[in-house]
Amino acid sequence: MNSRTLTSRVQRLEDDAPRTYCLCLEPKQGQTDEECIEEFYAKHPEARNDKSGLPFLFP
Fold it and tell me: What DSSP letter does each residue of 4-55 carry, written as one string?
């Protein structure tokens, strides 16, 4: 098997694999997690319409 064949096989596997995303947010001092999420959506309103729903992680 040559490198080109192997590379194309790996690329197809990567393209077919489901992708999982999450956002790591750090609330400002005195800010709740919910306020931090709303601030994010205010800056990025297109993310609110994401059908998959974005999971958030907090420190």
Answer: HHHHHHHHHHHHHS-----EE--PPTT--HHHHHHHHHHH-HHHHT-TT---
